[in-house]
Amino acid sequence: MSYRAPVSDIVFTLRHVVGLDRELERGTFGDLGADLVEAILTEAGRFATEEIAPLNRIGDEVGAILADGKVTMPPGWKEAYARWTKAGWASLTGPAAFGGQDLPTSLSVATLEMWNSGSMAYGIGPTLTLGAVEAIHAHASPQLKDIFLGKLVSGEWMGTMNLTEPQAGSDLALLRTRAEPRGDGSYLIRGTKIFITYGEHDFTDNIVHLVLARLTDAPPGTRGLSLFLVPKFLVQPDGSLGPRNDVWCRSLEHKLGIHASPTCVMAFGDNEGAVGWLVGEPNRGLNCMFTMMNNARLCVGIQGVAIAERAYQTALAYARERRQGRLPGMPAEDAVAIIAHPDIRRSLMTMKALTQAARAICYETALAADLARHAREAGEREAAQARANLLTPVAKAFSTDIGVEVASIGIQVHGGMGYVEETGAAQHLRDARIAPIYEGTNGIQAIDLVVRKLPLEGGRAIGAYIADMRRIVEAVARIDDPAFGATGGRLAAAVDALERAGIWLAATMPTDPDAALAGATPYLRLFGIAAGGIALARGALAARALASEAPAGSVALARFFAENIAPEAPALAEIVIGGAPSVQAAEMALAS
Amino acid sequence: MSYRAPVSDIVFTLRHVVGLDRELERGTFGDLGADLVEAILTEAGRFATEEIAPLNRIGDEVGAILADGKVTMPPGWKEAYARWTKAGWASLTGPAAFGGQDLPTSLSVATLEMWNSGSMAYGIGPTLTLGAVEAIHAHASPQLKDIFLGKLVSGEWMGTMNLTEPQAGSDLALLRTRAEPRGDGSYLIRGTKIFITYGEHDFTDNIVHLVLARLTDAPPGTRGLSLFLVPKFLVQPDGSLGPRNDVWCRSLEHKLGIHASPTCVMAFGDNEGAVGWLVGEPNRGLNCMFTMMNNARLCVGIQGVAIAERAYQTALAYARERRQGRLPGMPAEDAVAIIAHPDIRRSLMTMKALTQAARAICYETALAADLARHAREAGEREAAQARANLLTPVAKAFSTDIGVEVASIGIQVHGGMGYVEETGAAQHLRDARIAPIYEGTNGIQAIDLVVRKLPLEGGRAIGAYIADMRRIVEAVARIDDPAFGATGGRLAAAVDALERAGIWLAATMPTDPDAALAGATPYLRLFGIAAGGIALARGALAARALASEAPAGSVALARFFAENIAPEAPALAEIVIGGAPSVQAAEMALAS
Prior knowledge:
By secondary structure, chain A is an alpha+beta fold. Chain A contains 21 helices and 12 strands. In chain A, the strands form 3 sheets. In chain A, strands 4-5-12-7-6 form a 5-stranded mixed β-barrel. In chain A, strands 1-2 form a two-stranded antiparallel ribbon.
C-alpha cells in the first residue's frame, strides 16, 4: 500500500490548529505568506509520495549493507537522496549565510513528517544532519563553519551525532572516549561509539561526525565532556577532500526495523587516531548537545506521527476493500467492506485521532521554537522558549508511543494479512518501535518533564499552558453545538486532571523524588492526552469557522477523541497521585 | 536470555488463586492430588526450560523452510518434538480410551504456557493437534477414531485446522472449498486454504487435516459447511501409511514472527482430488468446530501469557544487570542497576502484574471448562460451562493484548539493546503480535463477549461472576490490612464499572446493536482489568493465609495492579457507555 501525503491535514493543522496563520499575518516570519507555505508543503508532499514512499519496502528488504568498511544503501536510495538535495529540501531551515533558506522550524517539521512517512529509515538521516548543522552553527569556530557548514546545509555532506558507548546510553557521565591535543589546535580522538545512525553510507562523499569525548585532563562525569568535529575525510584548504580519517564503521546492528538506516559501531582512532576539532568550549560538550536536543527530540516525535499516518492510510485502504460479514438482509454469498463494522470504525478512528493529536502537539512545539527565535518582544520569546521546552518531551514521547500503538492497531485491522510482511503493515510496527527509544528514551522524557520542565519559570510555563487549554474548553462550552457531544465536559475533566497531577508532582518532587518519578510516565501520557484533545477541539472550532476550507470531520474527530480517549485522563491522574507506594514496594514482587 | 519456567507462580495460581486445590480435595478429578499436579508441572517446567527454550532463537533465525513441497523444521526441532512426545507431553488431556492421560485442561493449559514461553512457534503446533483430537473424539465415526485418534493423542501424528480461504477469514460464510461424494463413503475435496498452521512439516510421518468444505448440494452460508478429515497419507487397514493424498503445501507465509511455525497455503485436490471423510453430520461442520473453539481460543490466550512471562524475565534480568545513573552521593564513574529507577520499576511491575493477571484469567477459564465436564452436580456443570463460555473471549483477547503490550514494554526496558535482534526482546514482540489475530481476532472476541456471552443464562452467568468478584472485594475490605493500600476501593470501582457497562450493553444491544458493538473492545478490556485485579487480590489473600508457601510479593503485586492499572476501569465504562455516537459519526472523519 502506498502513501499519499495528507497535505490538507498538515496545512490545516499548521495554519489553523497551532496558529501559524496568525504569525504570518503579524509578520513574525518576514514576508513569508500562507501561499508560499502551502506551495512548499504541496511540493514536499509530492516528493514524499512519489519519490520516497516507493523506496520504503526495498529499504526494509535489502537494508543497508556493510562490506570492506563501506556501507551501501539500498537500490535507488542514493539517487533519491541526490534528487532530494538538488530540490533544496536539505536546506529549508539552514542559516542563510551558509546557503540555507532560513524557513521556520514548524514548516520544516511538517516536511520532515512527510519524509518519514515516506520512509522512516530515510527521514532519520537528514534529521541528524539538521542537528549537526545546528550545533556547528551555534558553537563551532568561524573556520570550522566555513569549511563544513555550507556543505552540510546543502546536503552535499551529512552529519552524525556520536554519544552512546556500550557502557553509556542514557547515562552520558559514563562516556570514555578520549581526546588528546596535538598542539596544532586539532585533537586525536580514540574510542568506540555504538548506535551511530547513518555513521557510514554512500549518500555523500564526506560525513561529519560530532563526537562527545573527554580531554586528557577532564573531570569525571558529564562536566568533563567536550564536543569534537571528526570528518570522515579531512578537508584541504581549497575545500577538496584530503586523506581518509581514522574513523571506521566496524559493524551494523541487526535491527527490528528501519533496516535501511545504517546503525553503526564506529571506531575512532583504532590506528593512528582520528583527527578532530573542538566545537565550543572544553568540557562544555553537553551544553553544545543541549542546543540541538530540543529540536532533535521534536524531530523524533514527528517520526511517531509520520509512521502513524502511514499505518492509518494503509489500514483505511484495506478496511475499505476487504469484504467480510453481512448487514441484515444481505445474501449469504455477499459481504460488506469491513469499515462498516463498528469495531473496525473504532480502530480506524482511534488511529486517526491519535495521529492528528500528536501531529498538532509536534507542530505546536515547533511553532513555539520558532517564536522563541523570531517573536518581536523579548518577553514573548522567553515565554515561547519555555513553552517549547515544556512541550518537547511530550512531543517526543507521546507521539512515538502512539506511533507504536497506531501501527499495532493497523496490523490488527488487517487480520491475518497484517502479520504477513508483504502487506507492509508489519513493517510500520517494526520501524515505529525505535522512536520511543532513541534520542532519549520515553522514560527519560517523562523524567525530564517532571524534573526540569514542570518547574520552568517557577511553574508559570505549565500554568500558562493550562490556562490556554481552558480557553479552548470554554470556547467549546460557549458554542454549545450538539455535534460536539460531551467534548467540553470530557476535556474540562482532562485539563483538571493534568493540573491536579502536576500540582501533586511539583509538591512531591522536593520531598519524595522517587514517588514523583514513579508517576512520570503516566503523567506524560496524561499531558499528551489533554494536549491532544485540546488541539483537536481547537481544530474543530477552526473548521467550524472556516467551513469549506477545513478537512471534513474535524468536529467528529475531536468528539471521538474527547469521548473515547480523553476519559483516560482522570484515571492517569489517579495513577500519578496514588500509584507510587506500590511502585516503591516493587522490590518484593520483582524478587520472586 | 534464557527462560526459566516460573513453576512456583504457576502452581500457586492454579492451586490457590483459581482454586484447583478445592476441587482436588472434593475429588472432582478422582484420585489426582496436589503432589502429582506439582510433580507434573515441575517436570514440564524442566522440559520447557532445558529443551524448548534453547530452540527459540534458531527457530526465529532459520525458520521453517519449504522445498519440493516439503517443509523442514529448524535444526534440533524435530528431535525435540520426538523427546517431547516420548515423555508423554502430547497425551496429557487425551481420552484414556485412546491412550491419553485424561488429565484436567487446567493442568494442560499450565503446561501449554510453558511450551509457549519456551517457544511460541513450537507451542502452536501441539495446540492445533489438541483441537483436532477434541473434534475427532466428539464427532467422528468409530472407524475414523480407531484409525486416527490414538496416533494423534500420542503425538505420533499431528493435526491441523483448515478454515481460512483468501476471501474468507473472520467470515466463514464465504468459504468455497468443495467436497464431492465418491460413493464409497469418502469424498474428494478441492479448494485452497490459507494461513494453515503446521500444514506441512517434518515432525511426524503423517498429518491429519480437518477441513471445512461444502458438499455439492449444500446451502450457502455457514449452514452449508461440513467438516472433513483429510490425511496427508492415506492409511492402510493395518494402520500403516498408504498412498500420498492430493494435499500439498504450495507456499509458506513470510511472517513478522513465529518463523518456525510453518504457515501454509494448502492446495486440496489440485490433481486427482484430496480424499477425505466426513466428520459429524453433513452441513454441521461449524458445530463441530464450535466444540473445540473454546479450548482453542483459551490455548491462544495462554500464548499471550507465555510470551509476556518470557518478555518479563528477559527485561528483569537486563534491568538487574545494566548500570546507568547514580543515586545521590555516588561518584560520577559509578552507576546503579537500572532496576533502582522508579520508572523502570513501574515498567517491570506493569509487565509482571499484567502477566500474572492474564495467567489467572486463563487458568480460571480452564478450570471452569474442567468443572463443566467433571463436576458432580448437573447444575454445577452447567454453571461452570456458562462461566467457561463467558470467560473464553476475555482469556483469549485480554491475554493476547497484554502479551503484545508486555513484549513492547520489554523492548523499552532494554533501551537501544531492545531494538537489536540479538537481544531477543524484539522477537518476543514479533511473535506476540500474531496472537491477537488468529483463532478469531480480538475484535471478534469482543463482539462474541457482548453478543453471545453477556446474555448467557439470561444474564445470570455474568451476574454470578460479578457476585464472586464482589466477595473478593469484601474480603479485602474485611482484613483491612494497610499493605493492601487502596486495593479494596479501586477494585470495588472496577467491578462497579464492569457491571454498569454490562447493564448498558445488555439494554442497548436489542435496540441499537451498532452502538453496543462500538463498545465491545473497551468492554472486553474493562472485563480483563476487573477480572485480573480481582484474581491478583484473591492471590494476595491466599498468600497472606499461606505465608511461606506463597510467592513473595503477592500483596504488593495485587496492590500495584489495583492502584496503577485498575483505575482505567471506570474510564473504560465511560467509553463503552458514552463513546458510541462518535464512533458511528466516523464516516465523515474517515472520509477526509
